[in-house]
Amino acid sequence: MTAKILDSFGGKLAEKWAATLLTPAFVFWLGGFIAILQHWDWDRLVKKFSLYSAPLQTAILVGCLCLIAASAFVIQRFDWITLRVLEGYYWPPVIGRIRVRHYELHRKQLVEQGQVLRQYEDKERHTFQRLKVKIETQGASALSQADKEKYLQLDKQLLDSDKQSILMRTRRQLRNLPAVSDLMPTRLGNLIRATERRPLARYGLDAVVCWPYLWLVIPDTAKRALQHARSDLNSSARLCLWSLLFLSWVALGAWWVIPIGILSALFAYYIWALAAARAYSDLIEAAFALYRFELYEQLRWPLPSDPAAERESGRALTAYLRQGSNQPYPQFVVSEDP
Hints:
It is built from 14 helices and no strands. By secondary structure, it is mainly α.
């Protein structure tokens, strides 16, 4: 009778629940089932299950699938809070301050490294200009062989490949770090915080305040790309939470869950979450770059006349969205559409 019940799960019912089985929730409960089997004999468990009637066997299997689906639904409600914790919110104050101090020192080292490389680049540029002027005024024959080789090298690139790679890596790391006053305890938090602050520095628009309004004016294609990137980021946070919950089966004496849970959590954070956050951050930055003037137009706010005036106009628009205004300026732009 058990084989007959299992065969029924190979048909339409299995197809219906395939998506449920291929989830971290299924792996979590599978790990728990294996941990329970360490205390129960498998043959005895199968024999006891086969004694049940067919409807009861079906009910038990369907109940297990419903438990997996329900737990997946419940854990999904914690995506936002899990992501906030991974960003560095709600950490113990002492640990948070230690981590922020670490990133403060790291940021300082990167700034100093970038300054050294830029000074070296300026020195090389000065040398190149000096040799170039000497060639133009006195001819190439006036240069020594060493100066000629130096000139040809600098004519191709001011920095050698090693220094260029170091400078590019330094700039990339600095890009993922906000100002010292905005530093967070984690890499993920700093990456997202830097993204939130970038529109303010460039356009005067506070991303936290303006994003809900901007979201409503961007086209559907951009929304789908952003939703996909955000879903990917949420999924990585969810896997991290499931991985930590997986460690709870240690209570049943299943010590083998420790390496699995830890490795899964490390993968979810360092490989998946950080990559997903970078993709999501790039899309948010692109949305502000491409569609911020749509926000101006929809709010009947006058467009800035030039990039130099945009920051001031953006700060005024942000203040208006945050708390409104009683001032008679700026004048709203009347739409010319019929």
